[in-house]
Write a structure and sequence with these properties.
Helix content is 14%, strand content 28%. With 347 residues, the protein is of the alpha/beta class. It has a single domain, classed as Leucine-rich repeat, LRR (right-handed beta-alpha superhelix), CATH 3.80.10.10. The strands form 6 sheets. A 9-stranded mixed sheet has the order 10-11-12-14-16-18-20-22-24, with no helix packed on it. Strands 1, 2, 3, 5, 6 and 8 form a 6-stranded mixed sheet that branches. Strands 13-15-17-19 form a 4-stranded parallel sheet, with no helix packed on it. The protein is elongated.
Length: 347
Amino acid sequence: MGGRIKSTFIVLLLLIGAFIVIAPSSVLAAQEGDYTYNVYDGRATITGYTGPGGAITIPTTLGGYPVFAIVGGGPFYSSALTSIDVPSNITLIGDHAFYGLFNLTAINVNPGNPNYASIDGLLYDKALTTLIQCPGGKTGVVTIPDNVTYIGDLALAYCTHLTSVSIPNSVASIGNNAFFYCASLASVSMGVNVTSIGESGFAYCYNLSTVGIGISVTSIGYAAFSWCTSLTNVTIPNSVTSIGNIAFAGCTNLTTIIFSGPVKPTVGENWIQWTPAGIRGHALAASNFPAPGGVFNGLTMGEVIPSQTVNPNNDNSSSNNTMLIMLAVFAIVLALIAIILSMRKNK
């Protein structure tokens, strides 16, 4: 009996000892100044911000612990921050950590940071292959660097003051909600290597009137261009094999969809719901689309288009520009001929 009690006592001592060893590594929640944070394994992670806003620099220590991370999910959400300086000690930034900051104009990363970088106030990974976050208060034109291959989920969402974005040839994928509710965005040009446009990629871009879908895009995601109410025409490249549900739903001024390939893509349900009754699709004469007057997944087909009129770059404005240039040249030639004839007559 005494031996059993002794054994039990030894086990209890071992458990208490284990607790004492483990305790310093357990999570501790605390606040210092404008920041709430957790401590684990002797390092601090920022979980929230309660300050007045303005320009801030992320602290290097909190409560005497070195800060190494910022949680995802918007710990700074809705604060009046205008700029954030990220020091070299921050080696982990959670997904969407700086999302929803509508006054934020710049995220500046210390050049010595091993995992992150910034260019023109936008946050990238260190290799500059992923665009992580555009600050919500950014205005005007954004040019993405040439070596970026991925535009992350929500990377430019709610950047309501952007007017134009140039996506380079290096980009292969546009994430879900990447440009969601960029309400002032008027034009987007995609590089030739973009293969996929994520769900709601450009949804609710009310001012978007010109979009050149890249010639390598194979899939247009669910609701990708939904409620782009200024979009009047769009060209679907030959490369596209699938268009998601409600991809162009709510595009209340969309009247023309041109298919530049001979094969019908797979189309999701309600892909053109809430578009004008007069919307028409146009395809090549040598294609498997229905003949004019026929219906392709709810889209009435209009006149066929000759192959030479299909713009391989899918820039909806370039064909019009080419026609205007040709007309201008023709007018100049006619004017020159008239001048020559007039000079000969005067002789």
